[in-house]
């Protein structure tokens, strides 16, 4: 393993935890980090985490941010920054409000990117940014200019006709992965378990139902199986039901597919 372990830098801290207690002037009170409504979650999200104050960071010379970076790099060959979109702006939700009632707060992106680059160089570690969600225009280009890898997830890599991209069409400026910690696994996606749970938890949009989403998933399974070479040709009415293919076979095909991309 040339790189070794890659540590994870969380997007925020528990509002009642040691960081918010010991670095009070660097943290915001009365709001929590979340995400606006998007294709993944039509109701928005509230993660219940406390955020840095951009003004507090500047006043302290980014002391807490630097300490956090150095701790994360200390024993690792790389660092994954969760929700790296937050280095530019964070969706903050007032306590007691719904996620749709939140708003964006801007952060000193260039200062924070410079510090990430500096600590990466000092510790000889790579940096991966989880750049998934509602991404500001030009943000990924700014990460690439700093040598920070983005993340491209199999489920989202589709063309304008919603066909999954061939391996050679993936960009080299990101890490290739089938899924993330808050997206379904290959086996779970193939079986539609994520749809079952989203329905059970009331996370579907008003225009969606478990039945309609499972119908869409049947079509997506066929498209993915075609891209992976498990069906052959373009999906037709006869090949739309691909569920009979074992999940283990799909998992192996996904691994081969990612291995054939031009990713580093």
Write the layout of secondary structure elements.
Blueprint: E1 6-9, E2 13-14, H1 18-22, E3 31-35, E4 45-50, H2 54-59, H3 63-73, E5 78-81, E6 89-94, E7 103-106, H4 109-123, E8 126-129, H5 139-145, E9 150-153, E10 174-177, H6 186-191, H7 193-200, H8 210-227, H9 247-259
Parallel strand pairs: 1-5, 5-8, 9-10
Antiparallel strand pairs: 2-4, 3-4, 3-6, 6-7
EC number: 2.4.1.25
Organism: Vreelandella sulfidaeris
Family: Belongs to the disproportionating enzyme family.
**Beta-strand content bin:** 15-25%
Shape: globular
Structural class: alpha/beta
Helix content: 25-40%
Cα-atom radius of gyration: 20 Å
Organism: Vreelandella sulfidaeris
Catalytic activity: Transfers a segment of a (1->4)-alpha-D-glucan to a new position in an acceptor, which may be glucose or a (1->4)-alpha-D-glucan
Family: Belongs to the disproportionating enzyme family.
EC number: 2.4.1.25
